[in-house]
Prior knowledge:
Radius of gyration: 12 Å
Strand content: under 5%
Order of helices and strands: HHHHH
Distance between the termini: 23 Å
Structural class: mainly alpha
Number of helices: 5
Shape: globular
Number of strands: 0
Amino acid sequence: MTTQATELETVQQAMKQTKDKRMHERYQAVSLFLQGYTYAQITKIVGRNEKTVGEYVRAYLFFFSFFGNLNLCQIRAVNASWPIFSSFVI
């Protein structure tokens, strides 16, 4: 399985598990981005402007470039230790 496929699977799993509507929307936007959708296409699907979608994707890309591919338990641990990521992470 490729890294991108693993990332997509992780994001989709998090999207299914969250009960927070805002987080679901963020995960959905990132999931669509990882599937190859453009920002313009994602904005129409999630109902946010391109700037907002870009912020969601940039936060995701920064997080995973900084921490690498983590499983959901590790992501939760990072979130507890690094509150700066709490706007994106589980």
